[in-house]
Amino acid sequence: MNKDIQYLLIQLIKEALKDCGLDHESVEKFYLDLPTDSRFGDLSCNVAMRLAKLAKKSPRDVGLEIICALTKRLEKSELKNYIKEVKVEGAGFINFYLAEIYLYQQLGAVIKHGKEALRVDLGHGKKVLIEFVSANPTGTLSVAHARQAAVGDCLANIFDFLGFAVKREYYLNDEGNQINILGDSVRLRMKESEGEKIEFPENYYQGPYIFDIAREAKDKQIKFEELGDFAANFILDIIRKELDDFGVKFDYWSSQKELRVSGRIEKDLGFLKKNSRLYEQDGALWFKSTEFADDKDRVVIKSDGSYTYLAPDICYHQEKYRRGFQWLINLWGPDHHGYISRLKASVAAFGHNPESLSVVIVQLATIFRDGKIVHMSTRKGQYITLREVLDEVGVDASRFFFVMRRTSSHLDFDLDVAKKQSSENPVFYVQYAYARISSILRQAQVKFGKDTDLSVLKEKEELALIRKILQFSSMLNVVLSTLDPFMVTIYLQELSEAFHKFYDQHRVLGQDEAITKARLALIEGTSLAIATGLELLGVSRPEKM
RNA sequence: GCGCCCAUAGCUCAAUUGGAUAGAGCAUUAGUCUUCGGAACUAAGGGUUGCAGGUUCGAUUCCUGCUGGGCGCACCA
After folding, report:
1. Which residue's C-alpha is at the least distance from the C1' of B71?
2. Same fold, A3-98 and A105-122+424-537
3. How many angstroms is C1' of B71 away from CA of A284?
């Protein structure tokens, strides 16, 4: 629903409240939004229920009183012609029924301005950095990373669409313990290939790719001490290729090693020290994160003099602010949720609002094949990879499926369903609607214009379809406030359904010319909304299937 | 032991962040096609929202206590 009418109505409601002697300031919050069901009108407001107690009247009576004042206000307002009816319904909801003329005008705007009409600028150029995947370059990407990649990229697309200046970043843990172990894993495999009998430790990287790296390292005569870096770079090339094939492009690849070499970690720790946020105990250096709502203090320098993971991470996030970003969004796996409070504490210790750092926990995905779980075990290198999923079901289905459930919920990913080209598979249901529309538009003999009269669209299915198209921006609004793009997939399915229902009942072509033109405009608007939604998801828009 | 997340129809999930008769898809059953793409549409059955309390006009949503599941609780990353 268009933001303007919502905004204007809220102003009117507030004025009406004043007229009634009701104090809207004392109401914590009330909403004016889409009702739970379309039979309750186009916009629904709960303010009467919120005020009932204060007014010592029943919600319905308060509602009637408000409507009385509101109707007078409406008469004098520019919205006069757009609101067909206002009613108190249910427990005391004030429901607004929009006039068809409003729907026609809005649809007309979509036809005229294209996807710009679906867009609302909410970002105003605010600089957002969204960091995701950031998998250690010690192995190829798993499905957990794949889901993060899909969700993160989609979120970034939406931020971009909503007028934020968004950048995508991948943070590289390119040194430290894991890289040392990686290098040593390669070294052992090299020795093994020379016929030496070796004992391969449990905690070493066992994946098959280690053998490939060992072979190449031998050919290129890489020195033992450089094996870690060599292997990491080798794997990083694979990861980049995988992400590229998945349609995810990062703006920045940020290196932990570079950060350490730059000396900025010492500087930031120095700043904390100067502000008495650090102290020594048991030979280690601790950060007083408890001063900023963490449940215990955290070590930043171990007693052996080396950094914990937190030290460079504190600095890394300060770097993000120093680079000018105003809102930091991190996508992490569920095993990192305990890490949120300490990182936020560090942000606060530098005087930033902890709210400017948002951490989205992306739950794991369970892959099913033949009705059975495909088990994952990183240690043995027997995990199902992003590559395998991509090869098996393709980019479109993968991206749609990984985003399809609430990000905070576990996701069951059925490879067999994702491969199916039937109604069981939601991505095909949506793409089919798009292809169907494309087909009709190809065959159309007449063309609609910007001045096409849309008011001939009076059928139930036509109006329902227009309403659904106009919900595009409020859907994105929900995504923005929840930082969860799964709503896009639901919206697209609902929109496609509304189209299929319309299509089933009414013909577009070969009707009275005025009707054909108007319906062509209607399906063009539908196509635009579907295309824009699919684009945000990173899913293709096939005109033929 | 402490902390976080989850529990909704046979299955996979929603419920606009406290709103209206808890909704979709799949599966099941019964229907709709000579025309724009049937990869579609219509209808039916299916629920004590894990259990027990509490808060209020109103609870799937918030609070408390249980039960069952996942994950954290490092001078690992």
Report:
1. A335
2. no
3. 28
Mean pLDDT computed over A526-540:
95
CB of A416 within 7 Å of some strand B atom: no
What are the sequence ranges of the domains in chain A?
Answer: 3-98, 105-122+424-537
Q: Given a cut of 70, is residue A375 above it in pLDDT?
A: no
CB of A339 nearer than 7 A to strand B: yes
Q: What is the pLDDT of residue A277?
A: 94
What is A105-122+424-537's CATH superfamily? Isoleucyl-tRNA Synthetase; Domain 1 (1.10.730.10)
Beta bridge partners of A98: A83
What ipTM, to 2 d.p.?
0.91
Share of chain A above pLDDT 70, in %: 97
Closest CA to A395 of A131, A207, A123, A146: A146
Q: How far is the CA of A474 from the C1' of B5 (A)?
A: 28
Using the structure, give the distance in angstroms from the CA atom of A93 to the C1' atom of B61, rounded to a whole number.
Answer: 19
Query: Could you tell me the distance in Å between the CA of residue A433 and the C1' of nucleotide B36?
Result: 13
Q: Which value, in Å, is the radius of gyration of the alpha carbons in chain A?
A: 28
Find the distance separating the first CA and the last CA of chain A, reported in whole Å.
Answer: 31
- Position A140 pLDDT exceeds 90: no
Helices H / strands E in chain A, number of each: 19, 15
Output the six-digit token pair for A450: 């910007």
Q: What is the pTM of this model?
A: 0.93
Write the CA distances from A541 to A118, A146, A242, A486, A488, integer angstroms. Answer: 18, 21, 22, 18, 15
Domain A3-98, CATH class in plain words: alpha beta
Whether pLDDT at A329 is above 90: yes
Shortest CA to C1' contact from A423: nucleotide: B39
CA angle centred on A387, ends A371 and A132, rounded to 5°: 105
Q: Phi, psi (5° rounding) for residue A165?
A: -95, 95
